[in-house]
Amino acid sequence: MTRHLIRLDAADDFDGWRSAARALAAAEVPADQILWQVGDQPADLFAPAPRPLPTPTRALTVPKGFLPLARSALLHRDPERFALLYALLLRVARQPGLLHDKTDPLCRRIDALAQTVHRDMHKMHAFLRFREMSTATGPRYVAWFEPDHHITRANAGFFVGRFATMHWSILTPDTSLHWDTETLRQGPGASVQDAAPGDPLEEVWKAYYAAIFNPARLNPKAMLSEMPKKYWKNLPEAALIPDLIAGARAREIEMIDRSRNAALAPGR
Amino acid sequence: MAQLDTSEKLTILADAAKYDASCASSGAKKRDSRTGTGIGSITGGGICHAYAPDGRCISLLKILLTNSCIFDCHYCINRRSSNVRRARFTAQEVVDLTLSFYRRNYIEGLFLSSGIIASSNYTMEQINEVARCLREDHDFRGYIHLKTIPDADPALIAQAGRYADRISINVELPTTQGLQILAPEKSETQIEGAMANMASVIEDGADARRRYKSAPAFAAGQSTQMIIGADAASDRDIVHRASGLYTRHRLKRVYYSAFSPIPDASAVLPLQRPPMLREHRLYQSDWLIRCYDFSLADVTSVTDPSGMLPLDIDPKLAYALKFRDQFPVDVNRAPREMLLRIPGLGPTAVKRLLAARRYRSLRLSDVARATTSLKKLRPFIICEDWRPVTLTDSADLKALIAPKPKQLELFPA
């Protein structure tokens, strides 16, 4: 039976989850009595009316690794993440060593959520591509990216630190970020049409991509495991891949033939 | 000759650089551009911004300043006698290209190398000028890897170290004899001398940083590369040489590059590439020594009489099959170094098992959750509810667990 309805501000609202979870766990409210919801999405038919959080009766302490783990796992798109993390919170509060037990099923599941989120964040660092647009105030760099999870705001620090002196915008379906060398603004979700249509430098980058590829070592499987096809549509260089693969064996055979003929030719 | 545009030069000078295997952009000191006037950051892990269809990561703009060269090394596409098209970038062009790519988030930084033109010192000065301009004129805080030229003035190599995160000097071939035949103008003494010099430059830099906060950030490390399959060196020779280099010059990495057919190859070279698997096995043996507490003797003990590592199974499995008396290993009691010898268990899984067994006695299902390949390791372990009674003694154990041989495709997709 659900007794508490917790409304979070956003899908990545860690602070909201944390303060509610801390109060509920201190009062030892069981996990199955809480319904977690994001924003004003329609409430569950049987959802209780929101009511005040219990007043904590005791201090709650958690092991050092819990908060970073929860902060990451909470960005996952899995709708159960808030409840799973709360269940883990109740258990680590009693058994602080639990987080080190990498064979415990709940720990494993939450570790897996956090790992997926880390990978998604890492792929955004790697595969996001800016396009230069000229504006009245100088060049602006605009990127369109479609992350799998709610990572865009959590990833802002990386782009601010790296491109601190540039004006840039990152557009995603859920949200957008805009940096003007001093402040970061958040805007609504966007669509691919809002992004810059192209950038002449992409041709130079594609020339580099084609030249750095070694056709004698063709290994599309290794490429796909790190750069799955779902990312290709937003990577300018990916348009070259089918032709590079198709031509590779022929290029290698030609190189071997040429050296064989050169070796046989008199005078060399 | 008609003027080449940037894309044409880039095509020639990236094509000439791709035989360098190193792409690491990790290991440098963390920093970002919030406090600076330019762009760039180092986050610690290194980022691969794209992957080519050869499966290799593209992390850095990896190019030569020029592919003209006064040397005539047989394995090299840029040797004096090769008919390859020549091109040359100015320092400014490389700087502009690096920054343009970096702003669009294509790369982590620059990996610059060069053919030797005029003299070694002149070439080294040109390489240093690119790095100087990026660091000083543009306050670029991304990653820079410079390939240095062994016989350049030590002062120039030290200067390169002041701008770069990583310095490399290639040993090129695993044996002295191979170097004599294939790179007659290079000398092992000179290469190792330059490495020793760089090791002390790096050490001095680290020492200064420990004492003075304002000391300039010096190169964090050096690495090297050797070519596999172009000369007669056996795997045992190669592993010996690599291990010597790690201990003598405190290298971060030794890269292996399986010799691959190049356009306009020299007649001294073999026509066909060595199996790619050979390079892979050498990297595996390298990992065993660096991350799995294997000794050099442990690794070389699994080579065959001609000094080659097995191709059909990895060196760790080969070790376990050869030294069966050390197995099965009790996952609830054995020390870390023995857990690391179990085929199919990596350092991460071992760490998980060590952490979990402090709380309870591990069962097979616990081991399964800590790793990905229970099937491979089952014959080699003992746990609460599992003991391989006859398996480790059976003569056909290898057939039971080694990967099944498969017909290679003639024309892989």
From TrEMBL, chain A:
NCBIfam families: SAM_7_link_chp. Residues 79-237 form the DUF4130 domain. This is DUF4130 domain-containing protein.
From TrEMBL, chain B:
CDD domains: Radical_SAM. Keywords: Iron, Iron-sulfur, Metal-binding, S-adenosyl-L-methionine. Its cofactor is [4Fe-4S] cluster. Gene3D superfamilies: Aldolase class I, Photosystem II 12 kDa extrinsic protein. The keyword Iron applies. One of its GO terms (molecular function) is iron-sulfur cluster binding. InterPro entries: Aldolase_TIM (IPR013785), DNA_rSAM_put (IPR023874), Endo/Exo/Phosphatase_dom_1 (IPR051675), rSAM (IPR007197), rSAM_sf (IPR058240), RuvA_2-like (IPR010994). NCBIfam families: rSAM_link_UDG. PANTHER family: ENDONUCLEASE/EXONUCLEASE/PHOSPHATASE FAMILY DOMAIN-CONTAINING PROTEIN 1, TYPE II SECRETION SYSTEM PROTEIN K. This is Putative DNA modification/repair radical SAM protein.
